Amino acid sequence: MTKLWRFFVPILMGVCIWMIPVPAGMHPRAWSLFAIFTSTILALICRPLPLGAVCLISMVTAVIAQDISLTQGLSGFGNPVIWLILLVFFIARAFVKTHLGMRIAYFFVRLMGRHTLGLGYGIVATELLIAPVIPSNGARAGGIMFPILKSIAESLDSRVGDGTERRVGAYLTQVCFQGNLITSAMFLTAMAANPMAQSMAKAAGIEITWANWFTAAIVPGILSIILIPLLLYFVYPPEVKHHPNATKLAHEKLKEMGPMTGKEWIMVGVFIFMLFFWIVGSRWNIEPTTTALVGVCMLLLSNVLTWEDVLNEKEAWHIFVWFGILVTMAKFLQVLGFVDWFSLSVGGMIKGYNWEIVFLGVVLIYFYSHYLFASNTAHVGAMYAAFLAVALSAGTPPLLAALVLGFCSNLFSSMTHYGSTSNVVLYGSGYVPMGTWWSLGLLVSIVNLFIWLGIGGLWWKVLGLW
User: Fold this and answer.
1) How many other β-carbons are positioned within 10 Å of the β-carbon of residue 143?
2) What is the reported pTM?
3) What one-character DSSP code corresponds to residue 23?
4) What b/e readout covers 278-292, taking b as 16+ CB neighbours within 10 angstroms?
């Protein structure tokens, strides 16, 4: 009986929204789907059932309500991004199985392992180095950082399911996650939707280059990289902050492991192959998911991974189900016109004010509307051009408007466990509970906005952007 509220609250929310008269200019199916989507998000927080079950019930409800067809409801499972999330779990399994991940982790711990905060900064520094050349935050978080992060945590006796998550693993997971989004905002080439924003800005007559993007982002980006791990260290501290024997232990463990095995060398080769095509594959129209698929097939052919290993990744398949459905529902909110109505409504609300006030309102609404999206790319595709047009019509300096909305197109993923590919992969590790993930995400979003709009705004004044 005590858990009935977990069912009742999301259902009541959905019914209340559904009973509100359909706003003028909106398709009734869009409003109905919005009611179901909102109810689903609330259910993901209340957790009356596992996430996969919640999303499956929501999708079936939308189909029965004829908001979407069954074919449309299942279409998300053909999304390459969903498959990339699934595949990076298999790659992480190979890192662990071959012990290559543990070997890398011990090297890492030997260099920076005396303090958990130092490990956090080491993870963010690694992200900063690789972000400019890997245009997929999901590939970085899932294919590179997640296996190393997991191995570091386990080498320091912090594992999921035995009560040791908060020892170091939970803190490092949040640092890795937030660092991934900050570095994605710093470089035009660090996230797939950034060039999309660039092309939309160009259509509005605004020229964004790699150099002016980086120049505008460098000061607030570095400040975020310095302050966010420190903020998390105090508000979500690891239980073990100092590891006085970690360096010695790591050295001994590496000695015990001996030289690299044949399967470790195969894993190194496959990883280099994937890293190469994640960096340059876009030149030949090779998607990150294609690279990951080929990499997993190579691991299966070399028997580094077995098909049983793939089937046993239960959490990966669970994520595949719930995130695939969530992406689909968010997509059809856009297709049915809800997002267009929302953008036009925002434009009508804030017209007539000074450009500074209008632009602040545009940024905040654009930023926090990401609660409605399960993809950076979908959000940028749906709302970037419309919100840029609203900002420009109010007199906002063009390059400032285009760049700031571009930065937000990465930073707004900090709030939920489904906001981008990297969110899903790192949340799926199981180190951080959903409620904690959302509360930390909201706090970090506020701090990031203060850094980027406040201190960053002063830097942009120096650069002459406004």
Assistant:
1) 26
2) 0.73
3) P
4) bbebbeeeebbbebb
